[in-house]
Request: fold
Amino acid sequence: MKYEFSSRAHTLLSSPLLSIRKETRRGTLISLAEELPAEELFPLSLLSEAASTVISTDASALQYGEPEGYGPLREWLTGDWLRSKGVAVADGGVLLTTGSQQAIDLLSRVYIDPGDHVLVENPTSPGILQALRMQGAVIIPVQGDGDGLLPDHLRRTIRSYRPKMLFAAPSFTNPSGVLWSLARRQEILELCISHNVLIVEDDSYGDLHFQRSEGHPSKRYPTLYALENVSEGGHVLYIGSFSKTVAPALRTGWAAGSRELIGMMAAAKQMADWQSSSLNQRLLHHLLSVSAFDLREHIALLNREYNTRLKLMAELLKRPAWKSSVYDMPSGGMFLWVSLPEGLDAMALLRAALLKGVAFLPGPLCSVSGGSDRIRLNFSHPGRDELLLGMNLMSEAVTEFTARS
Reply:
């Protein structure tokens, strides 16, 4: 039979992300490509105890649940955790999702029509670009610098395209690791409010916030959602995830915002999967609220270790193979966004690196257009020894590629 897929479905099949992820599943390959936390830091014993307790205590843990998500976990999330970030959510204003990617997908389904203009940071998350392309959006990049999006360019872009939405990650943008300044956050928020543009604020990496040096913590800024401080009819949808801070396989993220937005996304979720795993959400709630696990202490542990791995990667980028490469050291997140030495092409270098047994994410997958001279390197997942070996193999690939060129 000849299958006639929709025209937009081919954007999924043609994505190089599929082949990269397939390659990185090989047991012998070192991946610096994916958005993965460190497995050796998962709270395994406490997760095991939570799973045993939840399943043995209440059979309803294995039953269908509410499309909006497990009520006690929503209450925990909107209580002390989000309030500590200055995020106040009205009743019915939060939806638990299968990771933050599903929150992006659901909103795109209910808010974007084919041909709608949507603004993104450039570079931005590959997952955001995939979701928008699947909906037929016209994606418009907005220029930025080390402090965030450039207000003047955003203003001109809004006037030219009349966009419906802006996707942004002000705290450690994927992949660049940029932390928007407070002034830039306020300017961007005011611009979007004045032009009635919905902001989707992805804070999935916001807790991975490193101390730059001993006794000198890096700066922290309020979220755009907190700055607007409007729980009904606001211009910001705030999304996040436990995948980067607890464990990805729990597949628990959230969207918080106006009840009107959340209600429409919940309706779309019922069509997609009815609910995210009730068992996983109960397990997570037990871990966070009943067990000895302290999420803040765990995040502090992650940040100390990830900061060490980031510094190790930066040291390895000082080797001769990387001469003339450029990058800015982030103060958080999971990635280094590296400008390649002159003459190197990211996609061609990836093919050479895969033959060596190491993978990275090429810049074009993070960009609306261009990016062939950039690569994204993940420093959070590989252990220190694996990171050292992976960067050694990368250096070999760069050296050999340069010699052939």
In short: The longest strand covers residues 236-241. The two ends are 45 Å apart (CA to CA). The chain has a mean pLDDT of 92.
